[in-house]
Specification:
CATH superfamily of the largest domain in chain A: MetI-like
Order of helices and strands of chain B: HEEHHHHHHHHHHHH
Number of strands of chain B: 2
Strand content of chain A: under 5%
Strand content of chain B: under 5%
Helix content of chain B: over 70%
Radius of gyration of chain A: 24 Å
Strand order of the largest sheet of chain B: 1-2
Radius of gyration of chain B: 24 Å
Largest sheet of chain A: 2 strands, antiparallel
Largest interface: A-B, 93 and 87 residues
Number of domains of chain B: 1
Largest sheet of chain B: 2 strands, antiparallel
Shape of chain B: globular
Number of domains of chain A: 2
Distance between the termini of chain B: 40 Å
Order of helices and strands of chain A: HHHEEHHHHHHHHHH
Helix content of chain A: over 70%
CATH topology of chain B: MetI-like fold
Number of strands of chain A: 2
Structural class of chain A: mainly alpha
Number of helices of chain B: 13
Shape of chain A: globular
Oligomer: heterodimer
CATH architecture of the largest domain in chain A: Orthogonal Bundle
CATH topology of the largest domain in chain A: MetI-like fold
CATH superfamily of chain B: MetI-like
Structural class of chain B: mainly alpha
Strand order of the largest sheet of chain A: 1-2
Chain lengths: ~280, ~300
Amino acid sequence: MKFNVWVLLKILAYIAIIMFFLFPIAWIFNMSFMTNEEILRKVPVLFYEPTLKNYIGLWKGEIAIEGFATMYVYFKQNLINSAILSVGSVSVTLLLGVPAAYAFARYKFKGGEDIAFTLLSFRFAPALLIILPLNLYFSKIGLYDSYFALIWVYQLITLPLLLWIVRGYFEDISPDIEYAYRLDGHSWFQSFWRISIPLAKPGIAAASLLCFIYAWNNFVFALILGSSQIQPVTVGALAFITASAIPYGLIACGIVVSVLPTLILALFIQKYLVQGLSLGAIKG
Amino acid sequence: MKINRKLFPYVLTLPALLVCVGILIPFFTAVYYSLQRYNLKMPHMKGFIWFDNYVNIFSDPSFWNTIRVSLTYTFFTIIIELLLGLGIALLLAKRNWLNNILGVLLVLPLMIAPALASLIWRLLINPNFGIVNYLLSFIGIDDFTWASHPDTVLFTLIMVDVWVFTPFIMILLLAGLRSLPRQPFEAAELDGVPEYYKFFRITLPMLFPFILTASLFRLLESIQQFDIIYALSQGGPGESSMVFQVSAYLQTFQYTNIGKAAAMMVVLWAICYFLCHVFVKQWHKLKIKTKGELLQ
């Protein structure tokens, strides 16, 4: 008897966990295929004719609402902005971070550990402390509302992340392989490019994907440092939901399109997620 | 081209450092602003007032409210996420097809931007059509007020935070659980040690480094939480969900009081710096420990 109660509790726990954590995502997907009338029913409908109207409207930038004139939405630009900002940030981070990560892993140099921890501490500083003065600065020197400035600020999150993850991967490579290659008459750069980077590649790839996710998910930087022209989906979706008369299905559709890229990427970096999320402190 | 051997590591790290130092300047500016009377609407009043901003915020009951709300939010999110995360990790620890799939799927909320997670929940708890309200009506809860009432707004925010960040704790602890050595458990099995004793005396102590890392990460993020709260309640109704960063944001953009906002952020930074200091120490110890074990 006791055994059965235990099993029952376990099943209930599984159901509760799935309901709480996964049902909201499933329902938002569901809502994005509904018309406003279907969403607004008192008793939710489970069986309905799914429509792609919301997706088409989002892509075209206009949607016809019954009883009203055509409504214009600018969400596509937010998506493009998110892509530009995330890809730009990750590229800059790779360029700056990989050599630095290598230096921290390979050389014991004076102040090295201090520099590494200073870079790490940016990850934990209150964002507004830095952005508020930056906002005033950028307005003065004309950098407000530019992709360049935002990508620069994004380095505050992506650079420490990549640095600390990739550092761990470089540390796992035996320096002897590099020495041997260099004894053959190859330069440092050749050994770095042909030996070290290919060996650390899985780590670098996983770290850049994680950086991409963090950059894509960032909200506060663009909220303060950019106008609606360059704001990413996170800020755009909030404006979307607070604007009146936008059909709820369209809002759900905007959210789905905004979260889909990161959800898909997350599936690719499963194996590296633990190490990445703990900045290399825990090996998964 | 030969670069001095000693200088070489600095050459490699310099670009990364320079980019971040560019960001360090605003930090000092913020500290400088916090010592000034600086309101964008009254530029002629600008002047050095030393610690008056700090005296002002600490004698202001609404700042104490901000501290209280922030700490309440942090406390409950960490406790709930830790217990729930540990519980789920224990449930999923055994490798089988269901647990493997759930281990992958349960990470998804963590990959959603916190601001967007708030919006998802706003659609789910909407008073007109929210599915959660409909489901709750079956267990006799009608018209739950969610974010529209001071009594329930913190509960709502904590729920969203728990939804997003429990997977973080879960995935770290799951990795920890699966990496624990088998021998102590086998020995306990042979000696016929009861389950709860095994849990409190073997599992928990061995899991401690993982719990520590996970909760310190969360602690630093939770006390600074902005996205979830700004996207869901903006500190309201009234000031019932006013946390540090939302408060500083409103000080800046609604009241244009830069000096006061900067002072608030410096206070938050001091708290975070203290926590970070504790964190880095423990984290370093942990790293050395795991490395040492690998070498043996």
